[in-house]
Amino acid sequence: ALATADWRELVASPDVDIIHVCTPDDLHHPVAGAALAAGKHVYCEKPLARTVAEAEDLCNRARGSGRVAQIAFQMRFGSAVQAARRLIQDGTLGEITSFRLTFLHSGLRGPGASPHVAAGQRTHRGRRVLYDLGSHAVDLLTFLLGRPRRVMGLTRTFIKERPVAKGSRQKAPVHVDDVALVTMEMEAGCVGVMEATRLATGVRRGPDLTIYGTRGSVAFNGFTNHNELNLYLKQEKVPGLSGWETINTGGRNPVPLSVAAQAAFLTAVRDGRTDAEPNFATGLQVQRV
Description:
The protein is of the alpha+beta class and 289 residues long. It has helices at residues 7-12, 28-37, 52-63, 79-89, 115-123, 129-132, 134-145, 257-271, 280-288; strands at 18-21, 41-44, 69-71, 96-104, 148-156, 161-163, 171-173, 179-186, 191-197, 205-213, 216-221, 228-233, 245-248. The strands form 3 sheets. The protein has an 8-stranded mixed sheet with strand order 5-8-9-4-10-11-12-13, covered by helices on one side. The protein has a 3-stranded parallel sheet with strand order 1-2-3, sandwiched between helices. The protein has a two-stranded antiparallel sheet with strand order 6-7. The longest helix has 15 residues, at 257-271.
């Protein structure tokens, strides 16, 4: 077995068929690009790259490589998400009118909570909340509701300085956002809002998504309870009884999200399906939002 601390050696090895890019964000573009050039299949963590330009370059390289190149948007593989998609596509919920999504974390609530955020400004590894938490959220929305037509966003950085290293008294300015609010209009006509924050004191949950239609609504958590779907239908199943019901969509032994996503990737590699999603084009779409 090959063990190395140098990703270039890994990419160059003839014994390696697949590269899993789980490096800091600033290395996604060089590592994934080199892997594709070396004829490897690539599974890349989100976000695809630091910028739209880098994501476009990777997308173009993947398209011409003849290899499977996917991004780890694992939440779309949850059984509740899959069930919600079927209900939307078959018209059970009627016309989709609006949605609301929240992704709430509290890990960076204190100025000394995460030195890497400040240090990252010098190495381009700082992770904006919209890239970090929001990338999964945007993928869920586009997977379920289609492409956005218009997007309006507002971001704020509330903690202006953080230590350059753990235990250090030296501080550096922070330029990544702590909170992001987004209003979206989708090409299908529905509208909605998204909130992503790393300063939700006392809360750590999400993404929580509610989608409203003219005949019914669905609500679910895309990560911690990804097999549980809350469903409301206007038409009464039993006369005189109506309301929300909670449905277990995953059975007794639900498949973990990461396992489901990686299984889909490996199946695409086995079958030679370079167009299987979520591919690098999917990652580029999220990057543009």
